[in-house]
Amino acid sequence: MNCSCEIARTVTDISPNNRMDSMRNRILTVCTTNVLWLCMASLASAQTITAVQPRTCQPGQTIELVVRGADLDDSLRLASSDHSVHWTVSRAEPTEVTVALTIPSTTSLGPKSLWLATPTGVVWEHTLFVDDLDMVIDSGSNHSIATAQELTLQSTVEGVCDQSASDFYRIRASQGERVSVSVHTQALRSTMDPVLRLINAAGETLAQVDDTSVGPDCQFSYEFSDAGDYWLEIHDSRNSAGGACYQLRVGDFPIINQCFPLAVRGGEQTEVVFTGPDGKSLPPREIEVPGDGSKVLQVPARFDDGQSSSWVPI
Question: Which InterPro entries does the record cross-reference, listed alphabetically (predicted)?
Answer without folding.
Answer: Ig-like_fold
